[in-house]
Structure to design on (373 residues):
């Protein structure tokens, strides 16, 4: 046993670089991204985990989860995961609760791998040593030149699949999709994400247009993930070459089980679904039901965690998170040949926090009071 000796909790808020300081998708507008960062210490070694969520996630970690982690065995993260989910029963498991658990679970898995002197993916039951990626951004408020340039840059860098946001103003989407397809050419895969903005009939109409006019092969959240019947309708009655995807807002296993049969490819976010321990459970569901699993965002963590997903599809190389993690950490992986390959020579997640670069963005946990020790 190697007991966890201390836990620190921090939150940092990075403004977006979108037009006018905001970014938009089909259902939301935001002006910043918040990272909640957790560090767990044991035997002179530090593990780092994180999630993207409100600052309230940090306070929940500090008040409910950090005390549970103290004294826990750093070599058995699932045992701590079980205790943490039990402890937040009344606070609420889905949403902020699951994100808080995810950050701590990632930190302890990173700590375990570092104690073992292994990169995290090799401390897991890995099926892969790399994770294919697709470029993701294309926000609905991007002017056409920025939209086209962003997608074309990813293709130029060897990423063969790219995604744009649609459905905030459907009347503009034909022009945007045409610009996107022209920018990347006929060969690369074009993906579209409505973020649940459409009704069932609107989504079915757009499914046929997307596939027929722009050769879009992936339609993410054409309707809300809260409407699995609507997702199933688009999946079953849409064109054969267009896959329906959802799952990024799954927090507990029941959320994912409820989408099986309604999507062609399930999505999971390792920083939302209970960390590595939760992700392994989702991967098991997908294996049993013969459905591929795609990684939602957080590329530096997902690159390791999803190596342990047997039915792996790909990883969302999301603009906001790539930008944030590049500021926050040394050791972030860069796509090579359209895939992220965890560094086999760096222990754990391979990340080192760049505290001086993060400090200007601190939103919670003053530097002199670094959480719970």
């Amino acid at each position: 046993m190697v007991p966890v000796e201390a836990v620190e909790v921090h939150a940092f808020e990075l403004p977006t670089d979108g037009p006018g300081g905001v970014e938009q998708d089909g259902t939301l507008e935001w002006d910043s991204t918040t990272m909640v960062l957790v560090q767990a210490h044991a035997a002179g070694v530090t593990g780092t985990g994180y999630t993207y969520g409100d600052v309230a996630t940090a306070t929940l970690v500090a008040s409910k989860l950090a005390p549970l982690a103290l004294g826990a065995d750093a070599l058995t993260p699932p045992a701590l995961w079980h205790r943490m989910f039990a402890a937040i029963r009344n606070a609420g498991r889905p949403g902020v609760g699951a994100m808080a658990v995810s950050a701590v679970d990632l930190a302890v898995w990173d700590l375990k791998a570092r104690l073992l002197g292994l990169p995290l993916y090799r401390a897991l039951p890995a099926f892969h040593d790399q994770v294919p990626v697709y470029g993701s951004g294309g926000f609905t408020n991007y002017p056409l030149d920025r939209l086209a340039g962003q997608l074309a840059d990813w293709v130029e860098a060897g990423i063969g699949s790219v995604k744009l946001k649609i459905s905030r103003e459907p009347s503009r989407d034909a022009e945007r999709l045409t610009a996107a397809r022209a920018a990347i050419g006929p060969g690369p895969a074009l993906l579209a994400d409505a973020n649940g903005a459409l009704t069932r009939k609107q989504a079915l109409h757009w499914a046929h247009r997307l596939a027929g006019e722009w050769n879009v092969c992936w339609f993410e959240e054409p309707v809300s993930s809260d409407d699995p019947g609507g997702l199933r309708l688009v999946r079953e009655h849409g064109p054969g070459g267009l896959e329906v995807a959802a799952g990024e807002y799954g927090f507990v296993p029941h959320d994912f089980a409820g989408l099986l049969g309604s999507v062609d490819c399930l999505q999971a976010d390792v920083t939302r679904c209970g960390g590595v321990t939760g992700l392994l459970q989702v991967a098991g569901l997908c294996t049993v039901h013969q459905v591929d699993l795609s990684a939602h965002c957080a590329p530096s963590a997902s690159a390791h965690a999803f190596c342990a997903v047997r039915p792996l599809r790909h990883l969302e190389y999301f603009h906001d998170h790539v930008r944030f993690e590049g500021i926050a950490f040394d050791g972030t992986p860069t796509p090579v040949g359209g895939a992220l390959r965890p560094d086999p020579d760096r222990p754990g997640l391979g990340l080192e926090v760049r505290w001086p670069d993060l400090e200007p963005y601190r939103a919670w946990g003053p530097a002199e009071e670094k959480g719970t020790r």
The two ends are 20 Å apart (CA to CA). The longest strand covers residues 32-42. Confidence is low (pLDDT under 50) at residues 368-373. The domain at 123-340 is CATH 3.20.20.120 (TIM Barrel).
